[in-house]
């Protein structure tokens, strides 16, 4: 069976930066299962896997626009230490959930200068070229429930994570 819309695809993958740094990998763990064609994975990888066969290996370079997007300087904000009540130590790299209207977003502390805190709401991989080394482990039709929910329910489609 070929990778196509409405199939559950299982992949082993390693994601590296252009510098060769491993960002993420399924190595040593379970392969990743996703529902193809509904945006479960970044667009550039999804389009590169479209029409491929089970057992195929693919190396894909995904530009930021087809990955997690370009960095947006408007998503970098200044805050004050007083806005972080109950948190004794603020360190670069800490992540917090922030509410903006009805939306929740994750912000990362990128600088701490006295009482001035700089927060970045860009995805940590925004602006990064992504290099995927992928092996397609399995392809199967999605169940009606998986299609309704928009994600796979395990290797056999029966259980919910």
Features:
four-stranded antiparallel beta sheet; 9 strands; Thrombin, subunit H; five-stranded antiparallel beta sheet; 2 helices; 2 domains; mainly beta; 161 residues; 39% strand; single chain; Chitinase A, domain 3
Per DSSP, the total helix count is 2
Count all strands and give the number: 9
How far the N terminus sits from the C terminus, by CA atoms, comes to: 25 Å
CATH class descriptor name of the largest domain: Alpha Beta
Major sheet attributes: 5 strands, antiparallel
* Poorly predicted segments: none
The gyration radius over C-alpha positions equals 19 Å
Instruction: Name the helix and strand elements from N-terminus to C-terminus, one letter apiece.
Output: EEEHEEEEEEH
Task: Provide a descriptive summary of the structure in words.
- With 161 residues, the protein is mainly beta.
- It folds into 2 domains: 7-68 and 126-149, Chitinase A, domain 3, CATH 3.10.50.40; 73-120, Thrombin, subunit H.
- 8% of the residues lie in helices and 39% in strands.
- Strands 1, 2, 3, 4 and 9 form a 5-stranded antiparallel β-sheet that branches. Strands 5-8-7-6 form a 4-stranded antiparallel β-sheet, with no helix packed on it.
- The protein is elongated, with a radius of gyration of 19 Å.
């Amino acid at each position: 069976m070929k990778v196509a819309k409405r199939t559950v695809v299982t992949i082993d993958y390693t994601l590296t930066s252009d510098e060769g740094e491993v960002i993420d990998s399924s190595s040593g763990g379970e392969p990743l299962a996703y529902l193809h064609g509904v945006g479960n994975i970044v667009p550039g990888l999804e389009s590169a896997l479209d029409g491929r066969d089970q057992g195929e290996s693919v190396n894909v370079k995904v530009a930021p626009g087809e990955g997690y997007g370009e960095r947006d300087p408007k998503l970098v904000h200044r805050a004050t230490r007083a806005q972080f009540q109950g948190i004794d130590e603020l360190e670069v790299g800490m992540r917090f959930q922030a509410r903006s209207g009805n939306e929740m977003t994750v912000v990362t502390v990128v600088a701490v200068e006295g009482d001035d805190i700089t927060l970045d709401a860009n995805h940590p991989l925004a602006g990064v070229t992504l290099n995927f080394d992928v092996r397609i482990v399995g392809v199967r039709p999605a169940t009606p429930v998986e299609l309704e929910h928009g994600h796979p329910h395990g290797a056999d489609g029966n259980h919910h994570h």
